[in-house]
Give the backbone structure.
Amino acid sequence: MTILVLSGTREGREIAQALHARRARVLASLAGATRNPRPQDVPTRIGGFGGADGFADFLVREGIRAVLDATHPFAASMTARSAAVCHRMGVPYCLFQRPPWGAGPKDDWTPLAKEEDAAHHIRAGATVFLATGRQTLHRYANLAECYLICRQIDEVNTPFPFPNGEYLIGNPPFSVEEEVDLFQKRKIDWLIVKNAGGAASFSKLEAARYLGIKVGMIERPGLPDVLLKSDIEDAISWALHVDG
């Protein structure tokens, strides 16, 4: 019987590798959003499942004993679907999410329920750095009077969707010094991020704090009523207990 780790995050890779090192039979699954994901020494599949029915068929076909969901905190539809299918099939399910970021006394953060809300706070003519990904870029159409810079990991083969912006290609991680240098050179007025949590991408928020840049912080979506872990070792222990 196999433990399925829905991965795509740094913590997901760590959990899958730790389970594999402890001789659990584990399969990591990546959605395929990144063209060249970092390799890991764990059996890995890449791509979607074909909706809820496809996911259910996969669980049966692969003999999945438990599902540990370590996808991105904003992969809300994937999490909801996975949790619902596992509940219906009686497959043990656990959601791992790293703790969200919290503003410090020197931070200037504005909470946002959704991307479209940023326009209510940003003045016309501002230069806005979007660290929220290309999939939700269309939601910033109401920032037509600002200049938008959207950072991407992979090269983009299509034009920027608005005349008032551009893509910036960069491969993380980025140091605080690199982010400070970039924000100064591009004269960034606002930084928009999703509250993903974690240390790996916090450097841009440290740079914003240092430079006094305003931050629009998109709050996490609500969670289904599931078992939730926020500590990697707790998540690993749960999976090993189910596997045992």
